[in-house]
Amino acid sequence: MRRHCTFACEGAMLLGTLDGAAGSTGLLIVSGGNEVRAGPWNAQALLAARIAALGYPVFRFDRRGVGDSEGENRGFQGSAADIAAALTAFREQAPQLTRIVGFGNCDGAAALMLAEGAGCDALVLANPWTIESEAEGPPPAAIRAHYWRRLRDPAAVLRLLAGKISPLKLVRSLAGAARMDRPRNTGLAGAIATGLARFGGRAAIVLAGRDRTAQVFLARWDRSDPRLRHCAGADHSFSDPASFAWLEAQIREALEAPAA
Length: 260
Known about the structure:
By secondary structure, the protein is of the alpha/beta class. It has 9 helices and 8 strands. The protein has helices spanning 43-53, 80-93, 107-114, 140-151, 154-161, 167-180, 187-197, 212-219, 241-256; strands at 2-9, 12-19, 25-30, 58-61, 99-105, 122-126, 202-208, 228-231.
C-alpha cells in the first residue's frame, strides 16, 4: 500500500510517499530540520505504516532542497508553499479525503504554526522550535534544577556558608530564570503563537520531557494552555517504545476526533 509520487512546488519537483488506506481522514507529516521524509531512525516511515494500518492514509514528503526533492532549501520559515503543495498532492493521491491532520516535530511543528495550519483541519505539534540562536542559554527550568541539585549537596551548602559561593550570584540567577519563565510574545515564539491563534481547528501541543527544544518552548508559552500534553520520559524524537506509543496515541486521538 506504500507508493511514491512527484509533485510540483513553484517550479521544483518534490517527492512524497503515500501509505494508502481507505479512510476519509488522513495524516500529513511535515519533517523537521533538514530530515528526509523517513524521519530520524526511520520513525516517520514507521509511524506512517502503523497509522495506515489503522485505516488512515498518511503522506510524507521532502521539502525543496532536502532529500529527493529539487529546488532551494528555504528552511522551515520558507516552507509554507511546500506544505501547501504536499497537501494538494495528498488529496490527489487519496481523493476520498475529507479531513487532514497535520503532524510536525521541532521546526516542522513551527512551520505548521507559522502557516496558520497550512490548510490542515487539525494539528499535532511536537516540541515546537522557538530557538532563534544557538548561543541562547539553557531554559529556566534547567537553571532552577541545577541550583536545586547544588543546594541539596551538603558540600555545596558548606561552600555557600563558607562564602565560597556567592549568595548574590545565586539569587540573581534564580531571579533571571523566573523572569525568563514568563511567556514572551516576541520573535519566533510570538510569530508561531500568532499563527496558531489564527488556526480555527483542533490542536494538541505534545512535549517531550527530556528535550531542550520542548523546555525552551514551554518557557515561552502559556503553561495553562489546555492544548499542552507532556510525556515526561521522552527524548526529542520519542525514540523509546513507550514514548513512541504515547506519541502515536496522541496522533490517533486527533485522527479519531470529530470535525471541529
